[in-house]
Write a structure and sequence with these properties.
It holds the Pfam family zf-RVT. This is Reverse transcriptase zinc-binding domain-containing protein. By secondary structure, the protein is an all-alpha fold. The chain is built from 12 helices and 2 strands, in the order H-E-E-H-H-H-H-H-H-H-H-H-H-H. It has 2 domains: about 40 residues, no CATH class; about 160 residues, no CATH class. The structure holds zinc ion (ZN).
Length: about 250
């Protein structure tokens, strides 16, 4: 299909009432694309075009009016086992940071690789390590700067971890037994906090041309995790660290 095609171009009246989709593809498909094409055709076959004037309708709400609340609910309802909906939306992290984590899962944060895919021509260098190319998975998991925070986090919980390649899998696999309810809640918001702080430093360097020292970034991360935890725990800053490293309970 051509980019500029509109629904009316693809909807044929097919004589006598009714009407149906008349979709022509620009090229033939590869084997591995057939499933997706079938899904697409099934998906549109369930939709019938009615011939009156167009208007914008927000389908999630019955009255068709957009609301942030319904948008948030629709994200929460993303029940696919392949997306860490529970891990993101069920966490106690502040909501804008959960939105950020969710966007990172979907590859929607504006990293250089994403801009290049959209046709921008630019040099792709991670501003944190200046060694690798920048992508969401790199910055948030594999970059040396993020790794320092990950190492610190895991050592304060006293656990070893094998890292997944992607943000999505990392969150899906971010489970540990025997932490107890409250430590488990901190454990669950920790990756989101780490993403948030690392991304903040990336933006500071990109847009404000300022840099935090490694020590300040570590402190910021711990301080944030501590503050986020205040809604479920009443501990002072020092006891918080002892609490994290309390060892697993059986
Ligand atoms: Zn890097």
């Amino acid at each position: 299909m051509h980019n500029s095609v509109v629904v009316a171009d693809l909807w044929g009246s097919q004589g006598g009432g009714g009407g149906g989709w008349e979709v022509n593809f620009r090229r033939s498909f590869h084997d591995w694309e057939l499933d997706e094409v079938t899904r697409f055709l099934n998906h549109i076959s369930a939709v019938k075009v009615q011939e009156w004037e167009d208007s914008l309708v927000w389908k999630i709400e019955r009255r068709g009016k957009f609301s942030v609340k319904s948008y948030y609910r629709s994200l929460k309802d993303e029940n696919s086992p392949f997306f860490p909906a529970k891990e993101v939306w069920g966490s106690h992290a502040p909501s804008r940071t959960r939105f950020f984590a969710w966007e990172a899962v979907w590859g929607k944060i504006s990293t250089v690789d994403g801009l290049m895919r959209r046709g921008w021509s630019m040099v792709n260098r991670c501003i944190l390590c200046k060694e690798n190319e920048e992508s969401a998975d790199h910055i948030l998991i594999h970059c040396g700067k993020a790794r320092e925070l990950w190492t610190l986090l895991l050592s304060s919980f006293g656990v070893l971890w094998v890292f997944s390649a992607s943000v999505r899998n990392l969150l899906l696999e971010w489970k540990i037994k025997g932490l107890g309810k409250k430590r488990c809640a901190v454990w669950r918001m920790a990756p989101i906090c780490l993403f948030w702080c690392t991304w903040g430093e990336r933006n500071r360097r990109t847009f404000q041309e300022e840099e935090m020292s490694d020590t300040s970034l570590r402190n910021l991360f711990y301080r944030s995790l501590f503050e986020w935890s205040q809604q479920i725990l009443i501990l002072d800053y020092l006891t918080f660290f002892n609490f994290l490293g309390d060892g697993l309970v059986d």
